[in-house]
Amino acid sequence: MKKIIILGVFLYPAVVFGDISKSEFCKDISSYAELVMEKRQNGMSIKTLLLAVSRSSSSDSVKELMESIVEGAFSTPAYSLEKNKTKAINEYSAKIYLDCKRHLK
Q1: What is the DSSP letter of 104?
Q2: Concatenated DSSP letters for 15-83?
Q3: Residues 62-98: tens digit of each pLDDT
Q4: I need a labelling partner for 63 at 20 to 30 A (CA). Which of 13, 34, 47, 87 fits?
Q5: Cβ neighbours for 87, distance < 8 A, ≥ 6 positions apart
């Protein structure tokens, strides 16, 4: 996952050309990770999420990053209790954000 984030940062044109800050990039992918984990916790299949990625108009490098985030979310169990779902969503989003920030220094 960390290698994919690094690759995504360097291949994502908006970051490379300075259109958005590295911090904004990390916030964006953290928000995406939160959305993906929310979908995962609410029963959406990995197949459905990966299909959405493949249909995205994003560049290939961004799609690779999105796929990695989807795959990472499915390494976490799906929970039935709402408090556990919320905790999994928040922790995954924070992990992605912190990994991204750590590799952008």
Answers
A1: T
A2: HHTTSS-HHHHHHHHHHHHHHHHHHHHTT--HHHHHHHHHTS-S-HHHHHHHHHHHHHHTTSPP-SSHH
A3: 888 899 999 999 999 999 999 999 999 999 999 999 9
A4: 87
A5: none
